[in-house]
Each structure stands twice: as structure tokens, then as C-alpha cells.
Design goal:
single chain; alpha/beta; Rossmann fold; five-stranded parallel sheet; 13 helices
Length: 407
């Protein structure tokens, strides 16, 4: 990898050297456009699973990206440049994902990776992306390795949009304190990446606010959370975080109900689904409320964006994965729009543009990359299990940032 990067760097140096302004008095290096940029085109790519078990996610995700780019290109592109999108199926396989990334950057010489897909592939290729220095906008995963308070140097090109569990854990604590007045918070978390990342975020925000955090761990997929629940219940906490994803959260919530818990619970956005609500609502009703975060919303101007999306991708008008592809492409294009009028586009000035001001998710809140912040979604809404709601979840509060929650 490092040898390949060196070869790419050497080629770039030779190109720059060939454009040195010839003057008896000076030798000035002229700035040149990044790879994948011509006067008429911007070349981007991703690698994502469009076959196998994850095709139901990958196929609409790619369709959403393509639909957004088509609307941009049909309107004349950006500064007269159309955006060309390459895609290769990596079958959700880390080895194939690494090979695909190398091919896109080294052979196809794309300008950026947009919509890098899937936890195992992202985990296997994240350091490769950093070594290349290529802008990577939107990751279809929330792994904690994407989180960075102040990205510099080789970390700067990593630009996550989707929620990162470390950030979400902080938002959960902010909700508990700001909305529920909690001073002692319990967290039951799974001993896996998702649970530990949610815990890390909760620890960061609890320490910042001087809030007591009582921790209890369970194994992912466990059918017995009794010891962890007893620990939290005996601590007489004010509020509980369910730091676990789909396979484990019903077990935790059912055990809380079985032990007579009367404290409200909040869990991650991935659990806000009818199947989770239906699994627990009979045992929690009348005892405590179960809340969940969310990161997309369709009220106000976002309804106009939804209508635009539905018109551009009619076959996927109600598909959430296609919507996330649309979001990924919109974030990438915003950086190009901010460079309109610039004669030269480089990786450096593109990243500067992305960091220059917060960017609004067409179906969500704003994300601020400024100062090297790489925290993914920073505004989330709140839903509560409601057995009478069509999806069994009712939105009870809109998109809010941690600062807004804590005010």
C-alpha cells in the first residue's frame, strides 16, 4: 500500500514539475487539479454490496446516489462539470472491498469515494483511505473508528454523515439531563463494538456534565440480563440508556419490566422499528416509557426534499436505503458547489469547502465538519413506543443538538 501511494505521489510530483513556470528569476510551482477532475467531469466512486445478503440495502443505496447525481447533471452539473459515478460490487467482503478501493483510487483515479459501504469493509479499508488522502464522504456504518474531535493530516478526508454510536451516546446523556432532569444515569450495554461505542459517548458527556453514570454489561445476544438490570435498579438511577442493538435490546427491556423498573429508557436509532416495539410494548405499558433516537425527518422544507427524491427515484420512493444514498450524494455535491468559480479543484480546497460552514441533511439536521470535527449526525429527534401509532413509534420531539438540549 505504501509503495503504491509513493508511486501516486511521485507521479503527482512529476506532473507538477512539468508545469513549473519557466522564468529566469523564479521557479514557481503551479497548482494543478486533483485526480478525477477535468474541465468537463468529476469522477467519483464507491464499493458496495449489490449482491448477496446485503443487496437489499446496497442496491437501493446506489440507486439513491445515482438519482441525486442525475438531477445535478441534468441541470448542467457543477461549473459545467458533470459528475460521473463508478460502482463495483464488493459483496460485503473486506478483501474484495480493499481490492475495489485500490482499483478505484489507483487505476480509475477517482476524485472522491462517496458512500463507503458496510461495517466490515469500512473497518478493513479506513486506514487505506487515510493513506491515500482522498476525500471520503458518507459512510454507510456508524463504527466508532470514524469519530474524531479534531481531524488533522491524514484523518481529515474522512467525512461521516450517518450517526456514529459515540456521538449518539453523548446525545442520549444530553437528552437524559436536558429533557428528563437526570443526575444519575444507568447504562446497560453490550460487550461489542456498538455497545462499547455507545458507552464511550455516554462516558464522555457524563464526565463533561459532572453526571454519575452507572454501568452494567451484558453479552451481545444474551437471553439473561438479570444481573445487569439488578445493578442498575439497585443504583436508583433517574434514567436508563439501553446501549444495545436489535438482538439484545428486547431482552434488556423485558428484564427491566420483570424487575419492576419504573425509570424511562432510551435506545439507539437502529432499534426504532416496529419489530422492537412489538416485542416489548405489552410488558412496559403502564410501567415506563421506551424512547429511541432518530436522524431523519420530513416536516417543513424536508417534505419538499422528499418529494424531489420521490420524483427522481420513483421505484424507491419509500425506500429508506435509497434516501440515505440521496443524502450521501447531496453532501458530496455541496462541497463542489462551494467551489463554484474556482479554476482549480484539489483535495485540499475541497476539504476546506466542506469545513467552511455546516451542511444541512436534506432529510435531517445540520452537520458541522468545521475545525476537523468528524462526529457524524449531530442532531437527532426523539420517538416513543406507542401501541396505537402506525409504526408503533410516535415522534415526540424534533431534531435537536446537544447544545440545544442542554441550553
Amino acid at each position: 500500500m505504501m509503495l503504491k501511494k509513493f508511486v501516486l505521489l511521485l507521479i503527482s510530483v512529476l506532473v507538477v514539475s512539468s508545469l513549473v513556470a519557466c522564468s529566469p528569476a523564479e521557479e514557481e510551482v503551479k497548482e494543478v487539479a486533483a485526480q478525477g477532475i477535468t474541465d468537463t467531469e468529476v469522477l467519483i466512486a464507491n464499493c458496495a454490496a449489490t449482491s448477496g445478503a446485503f443487496a437489499a440495502v446496497g442496491v437501493p443505496f446506489i440507486a439513491g446516489i445515482e438519482a441525486y447525481l442525475k438531477t445535478v447533471n441534468d441541470a448542467g452539473g457543477i461549473d459545467g462539470r458533470t459528475i460521473k459515478f463508478l460502482h463495483q460490487d464488493d459483496e460485503f467482503d473486506p478483501a474484495k472491498g480493499k481490492a475495489c478501493l485500490a482499483s478505484m483510487v489507483e487505476d480509475e483515479k477517482v476524485f472522491a469515494i462517496v458512500g463507503h459501504f458496510g461495517t466490515p469493509v469500512v473497518g478493513a479499508t479506513l486506514e487505506d483511505l487515510k493513506d491515500y488522502g482522498i476525500p471520503a464522504v458518507y459512510f454507510a456504518t456508524g463504527i466508532g473508528q470514524l469519530y474524531n474531535d479534531k481531524a488533522e493530516g491524514r484523518d481529515r478526508g474522512i467525512m461521516p454523515v450517518q450517526p456514529i454510536y459515540v456521538t449518539e451516546g453523548q446525545i442520549m446523556v444530553a437528552r437524559a439531563v436536558g429533557d428528563f432532569g437526570a443526575k444519575t444515569i444507568g447504562i446497560i450495554y453490550t460487550n461489542d463494538d456498538a455497545g462499547k461505542d455507545l458507552l464511550k459517548g455516554a462516558q464522555i458527556k457524563a464526565a463533561e456534565l459532572g453526571i454519575t453514570l452507572v454501568e452494567a454489561q451484558v453479552a451481545p445476544g444474551t437471553d439473561d440480563a438479570s444481573a445487569a438490570v439488578t445493578t442498575i435498579k439497585d443504583a436508583n438511577v433517574d434514567f436508563i440508556i439501553g446501549g444495545a442493538i436489535q438482538a439484545t435490546i428486547p431482552t434488556i427491556i423485558k428484564e427491566l419490566a420483570a424487575q419492576g423498573n419504573d425509570k424511562d429508557v432510551i435506545t439507539t436509532y437502529v432499534n426504532v422499528a416496529p419489530v422492537i416495539a412489538e416485542a416489548v410494548m405489552a410488558v412496559t405499558e403502564g410501567k415506563f416509557d421506551v424512547y429511541g433516537n432518530g436522524w431523519v425527518s420530513f416536516e417543513g422544507d424536508r417534505m419538499n426534499a422528499l418529494q424531489e427524491f420521490a420524483a427522481a427515484a420513483p421505484d424507491y420512493a419509500a425506500n429508506a436505503y435509497a434516501m440515505t444514498g440521496w443524502i450521501a450524494a447531496s453532501f458530496f455535491v455541496e462541497g463542489l458547489r462551494r467551489l463554484e468559480g474556482d479554476e482549480i479543484i484539489t483535495w485540499e480546497n475541497y476539504l476546506d469547502a466542506m469545513e467552511s460552514a455546516p451542511i444541512t441533511n436534506p432529510f435531517g439536521g445540520v452537520i458541522d465538519f468545521g475545525g476537523g470535527k468528524r462526529a457524524g449526525t449531530q442532531e437527532m429527534n426523539l420517538s416513543k413506543i406507542n401501541s396505537t401509532a402506525p409504526t408503533k413509534w410516535e415522534v415526540v420531539d424534533g431534531l435537536r443538538s446537544m447544545d440545544d438540549l442542554l441550553n
